[in-house]
Amino acid sequence: ITFIFVTHDQEEALTMSDRIAAFNNGKIEQVDTPQNIYENPKSKFVAEFVGKTNTVEIQGAKVNVRPENIVVADQETKAERAYAGTLRDIIFVGSTTRFVVDTPVGVITALHAQGNLKRGDSVYVSWQKSKEFSSL
Questions:
Q1: Strands (DSSP E) along the chain, which ranges?
Q2: Is this prediction's pTM over 0.85?
């Protein structure tokens, strides 16, 4: 049975749908599978509608990476994308904790941490390059 379900709840849209049409001001921005909408959004509006994203500038190009794909650690890593920074804030939000880090490539929010971290600590943020999507 085909049906149209209108929602502003991102989790509901991602879990209930085979395909999603993301509208912005009455115009379709993207129609795709939930996974492609989330992992390969075609516009900044779509990227932000279905979740949080970090936009950073690397070698003159802007790229995006989701907070859940970033790790904050108290020790340096050999990951392809790794940057030293200062832990600006730790925000407990119930089921998870957000770690906000000032880095040379911008302010980065992450959802995963390794080590016993506190505000003001020198830390390292890292992620896999394959988890980036192009700037929108």
A1: 20-24, 27-32, 54-58, 61-65, 71-73, 81-92, 97-103, 106-110, 112-114, 122-127, 133-134
A2: no
